[in-house]
Design brief:
Blueprint (H helix, E strand, L loop, with lengths): L6 E7 L6 E7 L5 E5 L5 E4 L8 E3 L6 E3 L8 H10 L15 H18 L3 H17 L3 H21 L10 H14 L3 H15 L10 H24 L1
Antiparallel strand pairs: 1-2, 3-4, 5-6
């Protein structure tokens, strides 16, 4: 029997130009998560599905995260046609991807989001993934640059967006991520402030059931880690 490849092509219709297109996915049976960083950056054995989360239309240049590719309104479709498609050179993004190819695809998604003035939470999600790709490449400078973009957009999402909608980033995970990214960028005071807000929410009987146990445990561990870092910095000073 021929060996079944870990990746395969799936079909969809581009919501911007109505072309029938293909995009590449990883078979669920081939996905083996082996580790995860504290900011949720995943590490896989074998094929990494993260590399394929950015879906790009080869015909018009529209790009989005795989979970939101079809969710674009008619006003934003027009913006993509005017600002992206008019300058687009047709090319394919199907098939196995290297980290560098994934990076190009995610940056096209980010360009699309910037042109249509997409949700801050969506911009933050894409910036996080770009930062993770740079982490895989061990490019610390670019990783921190995109972690900072992610942090700024998560803060705006927290203050501006309704994070209670089903299927969206929830407010408690958002608090944790802001605290985590602040720590990674050595903004320790900010980190403790955001994590404290999450930990205090857990002490509220009305909010406690909405917060996963693992998330609050991670927040408490992170809070202590940041406090230890601050103490160590003061001792060195």
């Amino acid at each position: 029997m021929p060996e079944i490849k870990a990746v395969y092509n799936s079909k969809t219709v581009c919501p911007v130009c109505d072309s029938n297109i293909e995009y590449t996915k990883v078979r669920s049976k081939a996905i083996r998560l082996i580790n995860q960083d504290t900011d949720f950056c995943p590490y896989y054995e074998g094929e990494n599905p993260l590399l394929y989360e950015a879906v790009i239309c080869p015909e018009c240049g529209y790009g989005a995260h795989v979970t939101s590719f079809e969710n674009i309104n008619r006003y934003d479709r027009q913006k993509v046609r005017e600002r992206i498609s008019s300058r687009w050179h047709k090319r394919s993004f199907t098939g196995e991807r290297t980290v560098e190819q994934a990076l190009e695809a995610f940056k096209i998604v980010l360009l699309n989001l910037n042109e249509i003035e997409g949700l801050k939470s969506e911009v933050a999600k894409i910036c996080m993934r770009i930062a993770w790709l740079y982490r895989y490449m061990e490019d610390d400078t670019q990783e921190k640059k995109f972690l900072k973009y992610a942090l700024d957009n998560y803060k705006e999402a927290y203050s501006q967006e309704d994070l209670t909608e089903e299927g969206k980033l929830d407010e408690y995970t958002c608090l944790y991520i802001i605290g985590e990214l602040s720590k990674r960028l050595e903004l320790y005071e900010e980190s403790t402030q955001w994590l404290s807000r999450l930990i205090m929410s857990y002490s509220d009987p009305l909010q406690k059931p909405k917060i996963p146990q693992r998330l609050i445990e991670s927040a408490r561990d992170l809070f202590q880690e940041v406090k230890d870092l601050v103490a160590a910095t003061k001792e060195e000073g």
